Amino acid sequence: MIGKFLALLFISLAAGAPARAQIFPPPEGEISVTYDRFTDHRKITLYDLMLDEKQTDFDYLRLYITVGVEYRSGLNPEPPRFVVVMFSAWTPFRYHFNEESTLYAIIDGKRRSYGSAGLLNRQVINGKYVSQVGGRLAYGDFQEIIKAKKVEMRIGDVEFTLTEQTHDKLQSFAGMITP
């Protein structure tokens, strides 16, 4: 009887281990595509693509981006006017974003400012403080970013460079937008 109890306890603990071990979203992000045949609208979202990780002695920050677009496709296609962009900062001790933050970029040596990203949410997830800022980015500006050879960006006080892997994932997302 005790042996069965211990076996069941071990199995239940082992089965829950992977869920508890994943403290952060996967760094490669996840793409979702949906289509509403009644309204002829397509929605494409790239969730939680890791942009950067910064570590100091006792603190760290992981910065993720979520981008989404909704547009009319099919018989009367219309290209999207904007892309919704959300930056999520994951930290162990405090919320990183406490107010709106300005998004800047240096794209192939040209300086750009994309305006303010408003504070969207602050919550604790898996014991980590997650704060999110975001807004709309003109579709033409998004295309400029994904077509560039080198992209350096800053949201608030966090600077990062798009890696080849991150850039490729954003290009894959953009390649799915077919009005």
Helix content: 10-25%
Taking pLDDT < 50 over at least 5 consecutive residues as the criterion, the unreliable ranges are: 3-21
Instruction: Indicate the mean pLDDT.
Output: 86
Counting helices, strands and paired strands, the structural category is alpha+beta
Give the SSE string. Answer: HEEEEEEEHEEH
Number of domains: 1
| Count of strand segments | 9
Please report the number of helical segments.
3
List descriptors.
179 residues, alpha+beta, nine-stranded antiparallel sheet, 23% helix, globular, disordered N terminus
What does this structure look like?
This protein has 179 residues and is of the alpha+beta class. It has one domain. It has 3 helices and 9 strands. A 9-stranded antiparallel beta sheet has the order 1-2-3-4-7-6-5-8-9, with helices on one face. The longest helix has 20 residues. The radius of gyration is 20 Å and the shape is globular. 24% of the residues are buried.
